[in-house]
Fold this protein.
Amino acid sequence: MTGGARLAGDVYVAGAKNSVLKLMAASLLAEGTTVLTNCPAIQDLPLMADVLRGLGSVVTVEGDRVTIETPAEPSHIADFPAVSKLRASVAVLGPLMGRLKRARVALPGGDAIGSRPLDMHQNGLRALGARMEIEHGQVVGEADRLRGTTIFLDFPSHGATENLLMAAVLAEGTTVIDNAAREPEIVDLATMLNQMGAKVTGAGTSTITIEGVDRLSPTTHRTVGDRVVGGTWAYAAAMTRGRIAIHGVDPQHLATPLERLERAGATVTPTEDGFIVEATERARGVDFITLPYPGFPTDLQPIALALAAVADGTSMLTENVFEARFRFVEELARMGVDAQTDGHHASLRGREQLSSAQVWATDIRAGAGLVLAGLVADGVTVVNDSWHIDRGYPEFVADLVSLGAKVERHTTDS
Ligand code: UD1
């Protein structure tokens, strides 16, 4: 891509990757036809469809609509290749334990962004009465019955909260998840579960209460907009001194990242179906601290670093969620960024214009961050391994072109 363009125009953001994959897993909780709409055209979605097919579901993807026919008796064994290809496949553990009281799920793959243990998932299920082991690279769970209890999470893990929620909806009695994750995707999942007949209260707060029910019925549900994709476009507008109207994302779901953006000098205006970000001056350096929601999302960390790379002054970023994400800083350094990293901290002094280079995407968000950096570089930047981006951003290149970026896609690296 060739840097220099000011991005301007409209982007329409689809449903959230980190929601839809879990909503698909939740379909396992009820026999019959589940319909999900506003689904994003990302590569992880057909992979999750394959995971469900491997368990006996019939899955059809048509445009933004995913239809899942869940059998009366799904398989409890998920150990086929699709499972190891995506991290979110571990989200079938909770529904399988809830519905079948047994599960055998291969340990998942996903982004190389740091160690991702499953201890909180397993300990929570143990507290509900299950026997949980890791055997031959699989998480194996078995229970005679699941009984509600209070589960305290050491850290508000997104994935553990979802799995425990999906197991507890069919447990006997009342489960309380304390120190639960509060992300909008958790609220989305709880909303869908309640539409299915579950009794979940408190989603979006640190204490979620679940009254178990005997059975659930399938439903139709619209996936919440992707705040990470929306946040990426917001930062792209600020980095290129542009103006982007972002549709389909609730700005309240991005309160912290948008507050940082305003501090950097951009203007944020809410609209009926999203918000507009506009910047006329070079961004000022600001500090970022990643934290569980409602803190600054770790998934926007590379995007924040890309902004810092072109901001006026020094920015300090503290990463508190995934430790290995600073590999991205090494790629930014290829583009002439003056950066220091030390454990959980990165300090960057921005340059008004970056130096174009060959760079390598190491995960979804790092890939997007490098593309944004290339938009503010002096010549032609080549982002290798850009297939990572397709796992989380539908139509990324088409959207960039429609906003005026000079970017093209070569398929040699996928
Ligand atoms: C999800 C998102 C990911 C996002 C992350 C944090 C999906 C598919 N992925 O990942 O994009 O960056 O939330 O918002 O939805 N941990 C443990 N033990 C556990 C579980 C987690 O130690 O049992 C640790 C992890 O190593 C990590 C931290 O807790 O350091 C956060 O992980 P978690 O919130 O569980 O993230 P994921 O659900 O894996």
